[in-house]
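Dear Dr. K.,

Following up on our conversation at the group meeting, I've run the structure prediction for CDP-alcohol phosphatidyltransferase family protein from Paracoccus litorisediminis. I'm pasting the input sequence below exactly as I used it, so you can double-check it against your construct before we proceed with anything downstream. Let me know if the numbering doesn't match what you have in your notebook.
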Amino acid sequence: MRRAYPHARLGGCNVVTLMRVAMTCALVAPLLIGKAGGAYVALIAGVALALDGVDGWLARRSGLVSNFGARFDIETDAALALVLSLHVLVAETVGPMVLLLGLMRYAFVVAGLFWGWLTAPLPPSLRRKAVCVLQIAALILLQLPFLPGTMPQLLAWGAVLALFWSFATDILWLSRARK
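The predicted structure tokens came back this morning:
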């Protein structure tokens, strides 16, 4: 952080993101004792998702916007999605395809190691933000045991398709931008 963070103080924005990291870490504990999903997980994850909109607002309001803060936020979202997808997998709510919701960001990062053009900066995107919220909201809903019939499968596949579309759109943009 000392090398990449351009401001002299941490600020409330990064404290909020750190709180979201702590909530994500707290959600690992139930997995370790074999208690996946449920209302507790959904509640903590719901608060973390709600706070996701607060950190950016605080950064803009306090003049602490930075590439570091944006990346910190993205990686926190990715970690939350991974932990939530593991909860859904362990609870056997839907099949292993739910891991796509938790691993797609990491697969993109690994692909960037092989194809450097994937690491180029992307322009800001409301689509990317909306799909991230949809992805995490779907994973939160999948924690709830009372979803009827095929609703969990439809919810999971809908979120996977939206996430694939978003990543495909970014990959296509990056591919065209390198020429």
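Two things stood out to me. The chain has a mean pLDDT of 92. Residues 168 and 174 are 10 Å apart (CA to CA).

Best regards,
J.T.
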